[in-house]
Design goal:
Strand content: 5-15%
Number of strands: 6
Largest sheet: 4 strands, mixed
Helix content: 40-55%
Distance between the termini: 27 Å
Shape: globular
Strand order of the largest sheet: 1-2-4-3
Radius of gyration: 15 Å
Structural class: alpha/beta
Length: 177
Amino acid sequence: MRRRFVIEAVMVATYGQLLVPSRPVDFVLPYSTIMELYDMKDGSEPVMDDPEDDKHVKGKIQELIGFFEDPFNRKKIERALQMPWRESSPLLLNDTVQFTVVHAVDNAQYGEYFDPIETELLLTSMKLGVPLLSDQFEFQDKLLEAEVPVQVYDIEDYEFAVEQGIEASDFESTRDL
Protein backbone atom coordinates (compact mmCIF):
# COMPACT_ATOMS: atom_id res chain seq x y z
CA MET A 1 0.00 0.00 0.00
CA ARG A 2 1.23 3.48 -0.84
CA ARG A 3 1.91 5.94 1.94
CA ARG A 4 0.17 9.24 1.35
CA PHE A 5 1.38 12.65 2.48
CA VAL A 6 0.03 16.13 1.94
CA ILE A 7 2.96 18.30 0.93
CA GLU A 8 3.87 21.53 -0.84
CA ALA A 9 5.10 21.04 -4.40
CA VAL A 10 8.26 23.10 -3.76
CA MET A 11 9.36 20.66 -1.05
CA VAL A 12 9.43 17.88 -3.64
CA ALA A 13 11.82 19.98 -5.74
CA THR A 14 13.88 21.04 -2.73
CA TYR A 15 14.34 17.66 -1.06
CA GLY A 16 15.52 15.11 -3.62
CA GLN A 17 15.39 12.25 -1.12
CA LEU A 18 11.59 12.45 -1.22
CA LEU A 19 11.72 10.99 -4.73
CA VAL A 20 13.57 7.82 -3.69
CA PRO A 21 11.38 6.36 -0.92
CA SER A 22 11.81 2.86 0.44
CA ARG A 23 8.11 2.17 -0.18
CA PRO A 24 5.62 3.51 -2.74
CA VAL A 25 4.45 7.04 -1.92
CA ASP A 26 1.60 9.27 -3.08
CA PHE A 27 2.23 12.97 -2.56
CA VAL A 28 -1.03 14.90 -2.31
CA LEU A 29 -0.52 18.45 -3.56
CA PRO A 30 -3.04 21.26 -3.22
CA TYR A 31 -3.16 22.88 -6.67
CA SER A 32 -2.17 26.29 -5.26
CA THR A 33 1.23 24.84 -4.28
CA ILE A 34 1.85 23.92 -7.92
CA MET A 35 1.01 27.49 -8.96
CA GLU A 36 3.49 28.68 -6.34
CA LEU A 37 6.26 26.91 -8.31
CA TYR A 38 5.89 29.43 -11.14
CA ASP A 39 6.37 32.35 -8.74
CA MET A 40 9.46 30.74 -7.26
CA LYS A 41 10.99 29.90 -10.63
CA ASP A 42 10.49 33.40 -12.04
CA GLY A 43 10.89 35.38 -8.82
CA SER A 44 13.95 37.42 -7.97
CA GLU A 45 13.92 36.16 -4.37
CA PRO A 46 16.16 33.12 -3.83
CA VAL A 47 14.60 29.81 -2.81
CA MET A 48 17.83 28.71 -1.10
CA ASP A 49 20.47 30.77 0.71
CA ASP A 50 23.46 29.34 -1.16
CA PRO A 51 23.58 30.57 -4.83
CA GLU A 52 24.59 27.13 -6.18
CA ASP A 53 21.84 25.38 -4.22
CA ASP A 54 19.38 28.03 -5.39
CA LYS A 55 20.30 27.45 -9.03
CA HIS A 56 19.98 23.68 -8.57
CA VAL A 57 16.58 23.91 -6.84
CA LYS A 58 15.24 26.34 -9.45
CA GLY A 59 16.29 23.81 -12.11
CA LYS A 60 14.38 21.10 -10.22
CA ILE A 61 11.38 23.43 -9.93
CA GLN A 62 11.48 23.86 -13.73
CA GLU A 63 11.60 20.06 -14.16
CA LEU A 64 8.61 19.63 -11.85
CA ILE A 65 6.68 22.32 -13.72
CA GLY A 66 7.47 20.46 -16.95
CA PHE A 67 6.11 17.25 -15.42
CA PHE A 68 2.83 18.95 -14.45
CA GLU A 69 2.58 20.66 -17.86
CA ASP A 70 2.90 17.37 -19.72
CA PRO A 71 -0.35 17.16 -21.74
CA PHE A 72 -1.42 13.87 -20.17
CA ASN A 73 -0.81 15.14 -16.61
CA ARG A 74 -2.27 18.57 -17.41
CA LYS A 75 -5.52 16.93 -18.51
CA LYS A 76 -5.78 15.00 -15.22
CA ILE A 77 -5.15 18.19 -13.25
CA GLU A 78 -7.74 20.17 -15.24
CA ARG A 79 -10.39 17.53 -14.48
CA ALA A 80 -9.66 17.86 -10.76
CA LEU A 81 -10.07 21.63 -10.96
CA GLN A 82 -13.70 21.32 -12.07
CA MET A 83 -14.99 20.83 -8.52
CA PRO A 84 -13.79 21.83 -5.06
CA TRP A 85 -11.96 19.04 -3.24
CA ARG A 86 -11.80 16.81 -6.28
CA GLU A 87 -8.64 14.71 -6.52
CA SER A 88 -6.85 14.12 -9.80
CA SER A 89 -6.12 10.67 -11.11
CA PRO A 90 -2.61 9.61 -10.07
CA LEU A 91 0.24 11.35 -11.89
CA LEU A 92 2.95 8.71 -12.07
CA LEU A 93 6.51 9.96 -11.75
CA ASN A 94 8.07 6.48 -11.46
CA ASP A 95 7.37 3.07 -9.90
CA THR A 96 7.48 4.38 -6.32
CA VAL A 97 6.31 8.00 -6.55
CA GLN A 98 3.01 9.39 -7.71
CA PHE A 99 1.26 12.71 -7.22
CA THR A 100 -2.40 13.45 -6.61
CA VAL A 101 -3.45 17.05 -7.16
CA VAL A 102 -6.36 18.34 -5.09
CA HIS A 103 -8.48 21.37 -5.84
CA ALA A 104 -8.32 22.52 -2.24
CA VAL A 105 -10.51 25.40 -1.15
CA ASP A 106 -9.61 27.72 1.71
CA ASN A 107 -12.79 28.02 3.76
CA ALA A 108 -11.32 30.64 6.14
CA GLN A 109 -11.79 28.25 9.06
CA TYR A 110 -8.14 28.79 10.00
CA GLY A 111 -7.54 31.88 7.85
CA GLU A 112 -6.67 34.23 10.68
CA TYR A 113 -4.02 31.93 12.11
CA PHE A 114 -2.48 30.42 8.95
CA ASP A 115 -1.60 31.83 5.53
CA PRO A 116 -3.70 30.61 2.55
CA ILE A 117 -1.24 27.89 1.48
CA GLU A 118 -0.89 26.59 5.05
CA THR A 119 -4.67 26.60 5.40
CA GLU A 120 -5.10 24.57 2.21
CA LEU A 121 -2.44 22.10 3.35
CA LEU A 122 -4.05 21.50 6.73
CA LEU A 123 -7.60 21.38 5.34
CA THR A 124 -6.47 18.87 2.69
CA SER A 125 -4.87 16.76 5.40
CA MET A 126 -8.02 16.91 7.50
CA LYS A 127 -10.45 16.28 4.66
CA LEU A 128 -8.55 13.32 3.17
CA GLY A 129 -7.24 11.91 6.44
CA VAL A 130 -3.66 12.09 5.17
CA PRO A 131 -0.64 13.15 7.27
CA LEU A 132 1.23 16.37 6.46
CA LEU A 133 4.92 16.50 5.63
CA SER A 134 6.62 19.83 6.37
CA ASP A 135 10.01 21.41 6.89
CA GLN A 136 8.66 24.56 8.54
CA PHE A 137 9.01 24.47 12.30
CA GLU A 138 6.86 27.58 12.76
CA PHE A 139 4.01 25.97 10.83
CA GLN A 140 4.32 22.76 12.87
CA ASP A 141 4.31 24.79 16.10
CA LYS A 142 1.23 26.74 14.99
CA LEU A 143 -0.56 23.46 14.21
CA LEU A 144 0.11 22.24 17.74
CA GLU A 145 -0.77 25.58 19.30
CA ALA A 146 -4.07 25.79 17.42
CA GLU A 147 -4.79 22.13 18.24
CA VAL A 148 -5.50 21.37 14.59
CA PRO A 149 -6.42 17.66 14.33
CA VAL A 150 -3.79 16.62 11.77
CA GLN A 151 -0.82 14.28 11.88
CA VAL A 152 2.35 16.12 10.85
CA TYR A 153 5.81 14.74 10.16
CA ASP A 154 8.93 16.83 9.97
CA ILE A 155 10.86 16.39 6.73
CA GLU A 156 13.75 14.95 8.78
CA ASP A 157 11.43 12.09 9.79
CA TYR A 158 10.39 11.27 6.22
CA GLU A 159 11.92 7.77 6.12
CA PHE A 160 10.34 6.95 9.48
CA ALA A 161 6.98 8.21 8.19
CA VAL A 162 7.30 6.06 5.07
CA GLU A 163 8.41 2.96 6.97
CA GLN A 164 6.53 3.21 10.27
CA GLY A 165 3.99 5.91 9.66
CA ILE A 166 0.30 5.55 9.99
CA GLU A 167 -1.85 4.09 7.25
CA ALA A 168 -4.51 6.38 5.87
CA SER A 169 -7.16 4.08 7.36
CA ASP A 170 -5.61 4.48 10.84
CA PHE A 171 -5.95 8.24 10.77
CA GLU A 172 -9.10 9.74 12.23
CA SER A 173 -10.05 12.87 10.37
CA THR A 174 -12.66 15.53 10.50
CA ARG A 175 -14.59 15.25 7.26
CA ASP A 176 -17.22 17.93 7.86
CA LEU A 177 -15.23 20.87 6.55
